[in-house]
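Weekly modeling sync, notes
Attendees: S.R. (lead), two postdocs, one rotation student

Agenda item 3: backlog of single-chain predictions. S.R. asked that every request posted to the team notebook include the full sequence so nobody has to chase files. The rotation student volunteered to paste the first one in as an example of the format we agreed on. Action items at the bottom.

Example entry:
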Amino acid sequence: MSIYSAPAKIILYGEHAVVYGTAAIAAPIPDLRAFAITRSGEAGQGLVIRAIDSGHELSVDLAAEVDDALVEMAQRVLRHLNVEPPDALIELRSDIPIASGLGSGAAISTALARALAACCGQTLSREELNGLVYALERRHHGTPSGIDNTVVVYETPILFRNREDFEPFRARTPLRIVIGDTGIHAPTKESVGDVRRLYNADPQGIERKLRAIGVCVESARRALEIGDLVSAGHLMVENHMVLRELTVSSIELDRLVEAALGAGALGAKMSGGGRGGNMIALVTAETEEGVRAALEEAGAVRVWVTEVR
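Predicted structure, as returned to the notebook:
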């Protein structure tokens, strides 16, 4: 038995606008992960994927046309490695809420791909793995930027411009982030599609909003590089306000953002696709517990704390 895993992710600045070519800053959540556990199978059994969280057990046939993301991911890996399905059982489980803006799909796909390659006696480079996971993200999420899979695969904070242009990012001062979950599932594909429709209806007006987010990202990068957390917090709020104008926030997200700010957070914003899912708050050691309590009182169904270094 071997265990492989991949982390969740948060977007600190720049979601949605990154689809249109602006930069974004994102980071993994090391303590919130998806797992793939490999077990030897009987001869002739073939490859079986057991999704523990959903209770599904799936057989992988390279020739079959399927509409299941897990089986499709396995097929992509096997074809990339040019091998037949091994006799093996891969069990999948995840601590990451689905459809919540935390990259759950990219994380489970990454863990599965790592485990399957190992079952075949091979390894995937990060570049190969990133490409495979991105291809699946495109298939199931429409026009993703590639930021989710890149952060999840490389497991480091990044300044992301596009799939070919990203670099590790390090803030001068570690960032203490409180994450509040609305508990509302909101597929990213839907909010991305709605922003696209807004853009098609009013290209100039939406472009101005996207550029405003881009300015927030670049200003936040400079603030974080010199350790100016107060400015970084203000820029989170600015970013959130523009996302509200793009209609991708929600009453529940706005309530949690306001609660965090009222409890002393330096900044707060939705994170990810929006319309539900999660928000983040930049806090200090002194305000962390107060913000956590405020989010729970305001309706967050789960609260996590992570540190971005």
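Discussion: group reviewed the output briefly. The first helix runs from residue 69 to 81.
Action items: rotation student to repeat for the remaining queue; S.R. to check formatting next week.
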